[in-house]
TrEMBL record, chain A:
Positions of region (Disordered): 1-23
GO process annotations (BP): spliceosomal snRNP assembly
Record's protein name: SUZ-C domain-containing protein
Domain (SUZ-C): residue spans on this chain: 1-25
Automatic annotation (TrEMBL), chain B:
Organism: Perca flavescens (American yellow perch)
InterPro entries in alphabetical order: AD, Gemin6, Gemin6_C, Gemin6_Sm-like_dom
Nucleotide-binding as UniProt keyword: no
Record flagged with keyword Ion transport: no
Function text: The SMN complex catalyzes the assembly of small nuclear ribonucleoproteins (snRNPs), the building blocks of the spliceosome, and thereby plays an important role in the splicing of cellular pre-mRNAs. Most spliceosomal snRNPs contain a common set of Sm proteins SNRPB, SNRPD1, SNRPD2, SNRPD3, SNRPE, SNRPF and SNRPG that assemble in a heptameric protein ring on the Sm site of the small nuclear RNA to form the core snRNP (Sm core).
Protein's recorded name: Gem-associated protein 6
Feature: compositional bias, Polar residues: 193-204
Span list, region Disordered: 165-216
Length: 128, 216
């Protein structure tokens, strides 16, 4: 199944700047989440904040190192509707909204480069 | 559709770290593994499973479960000291293993030989290699260990080191045997393409070493 396919452009999600999209609708939240969720504890203890910041930075650093080690490895994406595809991991964006992959093996052929929406992914796995 | 996992916050997430957890995600996917980290931005869990082969040390398979798909997270057991240690060091930069001094010396000599065979002036300066007076190569003498302020030299030398053929283990012991093949090799390949010759035949290095003495 190594036939390359031409680039497919799928419809984009709602544009956050145009009229008519309720920012609270599930579709908007799923596709246009633009800000990193901040801590809910602004009214909670002020002394918890440094601890939370520290925890947040430790967790994030670990996660970023993990992402660094996935680059250029073959990963298997498990997506909704029982979709399992294999690709070579490229990069992720800062909010973990999209993954850039190469050589995505789909049932219709191999996509040379693709952007996978994180909202569609349930999990992905690779060998370290 | 989201369970409370994404809303817990870093202070709660960090309590799950280094524990073996069972995660249900999506419709009916279940994942088990040691929780390495949770991404605070997307609440994604990174699970590691070790497969200890007899050959070549342990491999690990890693699953990342996206935060928005998580249904339930259950703690199965805590990690002991050894597993925690293994987990924390699994994604550190790969060069954490120091080489023994003799291996380092051998590598240095190998890289130096390769550079000289490619007509690149190189001098040994203690533990480092000085190339063309403008570039320094430090241990362990890989392409990433080159330091220079000259972009062009840096690029050339990095590419050269990257294309160095892997040396067979008893390289020095094979030298006397290969000397008999010298006439065949130099006759077969054109003398004005040194780099081509090196890349084409791995057993040819002795042929080039004899020529090296003439230009030193």
């Amino acid at each position: 199944m190594a036939t390359p396919v031409s680039v497919l452009r799928l419809p984009k999600g709602p544009d956050p700047n145009s009229r008519g999209f309720d920012p609270k609708s599930p579709r908007f939240i799923a596709l246009c989440r633009t800000s990193i969720p901040t801590s809910a504890g602004s009214e909670a203890d002020v002394e918890q904040l440094p601890k939370e910041q520290h925890a947040r930075s430790v967790l994030r650093e670990s996660f970023l190192r993990c992402l660094l080690s996935v680059t250029n490895k073959k990963v298997q994406f498990h997506m909704y509707e029982r979709v399992k595809v294999e690709a070579t991991f490229g990069a992720s964006d800062i909010d973990v909204m999209n993954f850039q992959v190469s050589d995505l093996h789909t049932p219709i052929g191999v996509q040379k480069e693709a952007l996978i929406r994180c909202q569609d992914v349930i999990s992905f796995s690779f060998d370290a | 559709m989201q369970c409370g996992w994404s809303l817990l916050g870093p202070l709660q997430w960090i309590r799950y770290i280094n524990k073996q957890v069972k995660v249900t995600a999506g419709k009916d996917e279940e994942h088990r593994g040691w929780l390495l980290t949770v991404d605070p931005v997307s609440a994604s869990l990174v699970l590691v499973n070790f497969h200890d082969d007899a050959v070549g040390g342990g491999r690990a398979s890693v699953q990342v479960v996206m935060g928005h798909a998580v249904q339930e997270v259950q703690v199965l057991q805590d990690a002991d000291q050894e597993t925690t240690q293994r987990l924390q060091s699994s994604f550190l930069p790969p060069r954490a293993r120091p080489l023994a001094p003799e291996q380092l010396g051998q590598r240095r000599a190998g890289v130096r030989r390769w550079l000289e065979e490619n007509r690149v002036p190189v001098q040994e300066d203690g533990e480092e290699l000085l190339v063309a007076g403008a570039l320094t190569i430090m241990a362990p003498y890989g392409p990433e260990d080159c330091c220079s302020s000259n972009q062009i030299i840096l690029d050339r030398v990095q590419r050269l080191i990257q294309s160095q053929p892997a040396a067979p283990p008893n390289h020095s012991a094979e030298l006397p045997n290969h000397s008999a093949e010298l006439p065949n090799h130099s006759a077969a390949l054109p003398a004005n393409q040194p780099i081509q010759r090196l890349i084409q035949s791995q057993t040819a290095p002795p042929a080039d070493q004899s020529e090296r003495s003439s230009c030193d």
